[in-house]
Structures are given as structure tokens and as C-alpha cells.
Amino acid sequence: MFDFDVVAGETVREILSDRRAEVLGIVSQAYRSHEAGESINPDSYFLRFPEKPDSRIIALPAYLGADVQLAGIKWIASFPKNTQVGKPRASAVLLLNDYETGYPIACLEAANISAARTAASAAVAATTLRPGGFEGTRIAIVGGGVIARNICDYLHAAGATPDAYLVHDLHEESGRALVDHLRTTQQRPASFTADLGTALEAETVVFATTALEPYVTTPFKPGQLVLNISLRDLAPEVVLAADNVFDDVDHCMKANTSPHLAEQLTGSRDFVTGTLAGVLNGDVTVSGERPVIFSPFGLGVLDLAVGAYVLQRAREAGSALAVPNFFGETSRW
């Protein structure tokens, strides 16, 4: 009853790298459970620093019922300047709590979990919102970091295999590293472009940047699918000219995301088409007459779902690290 485990990042990475198909299903089901009201997902809390305006640490508390029955919180730091010295932008831990007693049961390294659930959500959206498939199309990746690499891996696992990839990044070395990764792992044509406009012409465009404010001002064309993962690249006019699908509408309408700016500009949410779970359930359809933008704020329930799966696999494999006597008192009397 009072066991407490630690799951290290190497173990998390090993478990997730071999089970992308399972993670895709877990994320898809978590979206459906959230849509069905089987979760509690409060607003995220942002810890910001006046002397580091680009940096933040975010707390994502959540509870997921259904077949998970866990509460927990992800504590994830985003320090973009890390990338200038070759370190990942993000680092994170995930604390899981037993729903019956409230006791914490495990702490997991969560940068890998966060990257996996983000990438899986992008891949689920891609295959759901482009049901005709990706043959004869190009996928452009704007931003060549860890999240972008994971998105490409999960797109491949989901069967979203285009004829070619384009990669654009202000830091050419990062962009070319992603090109090499794509050529090696997917054996697909991939090329780097220093011209953003060229990338934005692809049939599918994925934004995975650290942008703090919009810089894309030209609307996309009908038939294009935009995975707005980094949330702040698009001017509000671009959002308003598209069908817009969200992971959770209320969550996305804050923190000056591109959809939030569109709401502030118009004073309404008339541009909202629906949620991804709504599309998965057949309750929401996109028109096909406009581009489609998927904007995920990133839900804590996804971290819980993937984290619970990782903990189970680690315990089964004996790779979870038990911490004896973690709790100082285990009896009330």
C-alpha cells in the first residue's frame, strides 16, 4: 500500500521507443475519456521569471478515471536558451497519486513522457484530420528540436508517410540534424530549406518551435493541414481563415496562444470547429473547403495515461526503482 517507485529517464525512453503503436492508442482513448467527462483537468499554472521572460516552469495537475484511476501532476520546465548550448529545452518529472488513498505511488522522469504524448497527439490528429492519407503529399516541419523528432517518429508509427519531408529551422544545424534522422529512420526523401515560405506550401505543416509571438501572417490554402503544436506561430487572421480543431477549447483560449489572440480579436469563439475527440467520435466534421488547424494546449490527462502505462511496464520488467521507507509514517496511531 505504501510502495513508492522511481522510474528513470533511460527506462522511460526504452519503454516508449518500442511501443509507439500502444501509445497512439492510449492517447486516443485518453482524449475520448476526457471528452466523456471521465477526467479532471484544471488550468495549468505557469511559474515565470521577470529576468528570464522566455523561460517558465509549468504545473499540470489532473485526474483520469476510466481504466487509469490516478491523479497526478507534471512539473515541466521550458528554458529555450538551453538549446544554444546543445541541451534540450524541456525537463520534467511526473508524480502519480493513488486515487483511493491519495498517496503518491511513483515519480517518473517525464520529458520523454511529455514528448511522447505530444507527438502521439499530433499523429492522432494527422491521421484523423487527413483521412485520405499522405501518399503524394509533403510534410513540412518548422522547428527541428526534440519534439519535432518525436512527432516525425510518431507520424511514421501512425502510417502518416509522405512522399517527402521539408525541414525549416532558424538554427540550420538543428534542422539538418532532423533531416539526417528522417533519412536514416524512415528512408524517405528529406531536405532542409532556409526559406520559411517554401515550407509553408507543404500539404501538411507542423509547427514545433519556441516562438513567443506570431510570425506567420498569410492564411493557408484549402486542403492544407496545420499541426499547431507550439501554439504561438500563427497570426489570429490565419486562425480565423481555417477550420479549427482543439484538444480542449477552454484550455487553448489562454496564455496568448494563437487561438486566444483570435478570440481577443473577434470577441467570440465562432471560429471553433470542435475537438479532436469530437472528430474521433464522429460528432464533429471539418468542411473540407478551408485549411484545417489542430491546436493542442497539452492536457495533463495525457501525461497520466502515458505515465501509468510506463509505470506498469517498468514494474513488470523490474526496472522501476523502489524507494524503501519513502513515507516517514505509515500508521495514524
TrEMBL record:
Database matches in Gene3D superfamilies: NAD(P)-binding Rossmann-like Domain (3.40.50.720), ornithine cyclodeaminase, domain 1 (3.30.1780.10)
InterPro entries assigned to the protein according to its UniProt record, in alphabetical order: NAD(P)-bd_dom_sf (IPR036291), ODC_Mu_crystall (IPR003462), ODC_N (IPR023401), SbnB (IPR023866)
Superkingdom of origin: Bacteria
NCBIfam families: dehyd_SbnB_fam (TIGR03944)
Protein name: 2,3-diaminopropionate biosynthesis protein SbnB
Species, as recorded: Streptomyces siderophoricus
GN (gene name): sbnB
